[in-house]
Write a structure and sequence with these properties.
Elements (H helix, E strand, L loop, with lengths): L2 H14 L3 E7 L5 E6 L1 H5 L2 H15 L6 E5 L4 H13 L5 E5 L12 E2 L7 E9 L3 H12 L3 E10 L4 H7 L4 E7 L5 E3 L7
Parallel strand pairs: 3-4, 3-6, 6-7, 7-8
Antiparallel strand pairs: 1-2, 4-5, 8-9
Helix pairs in contact: 1-3, 3-4
Length: 193
Amino acid sequence: MKLSEIALEMLELAKERGALTFGDYVLSSGQLSSYYFDGRRLTLDPRGAYLSGMAFLQMLRGCDVDAIGGPTLGADPIVTAVALTSGLEQRPIRAFIVRKEDKEHGMGRLIEGPLEPNSRVAIVDDACSTGASLFHAVDAAESDGHEVVVVLAILDRNQGGSGELRRRGYDFRCLLEATPDGEIRPVPGLDGD
């Protein structure tokens, strides 16, 4: 299945499962929005998990990453889907999760998962708004000695985060994007054409 086809199916599934709703919403940033995207309602759905694993694995082709991880809670089902799909396709990519803050007991880790030292990693989240949670995960990975090769999201809300990631030199890619008038659509050119 082409990446553009997967993105379109994910968009339709997001609407069907109530992951993407339209109305008047106040976001955690305090900004107003004409839509709300709850990525977990999509990525925790069986079909949504399957599509997420396939989509992000395709997006990672050619990136030469050892692992994929991101901020808990939005990235948790995505990284699991990618790890499972990559294992089934005999191209294993490990998964890891970045906590909101260092664990205060046990090993005191900020990053959880089988991450080898000095890994090449992809950072992922369900959505990118201001980019705060993605930057938290990027900083955690880099502080731990890993190289961030690419940053991914299902939806780019186009509220400054993706632009700032690119300005800082990160390769940012997503499946869906918000237009200035609040329409959500697959990103043009996903199949490289």
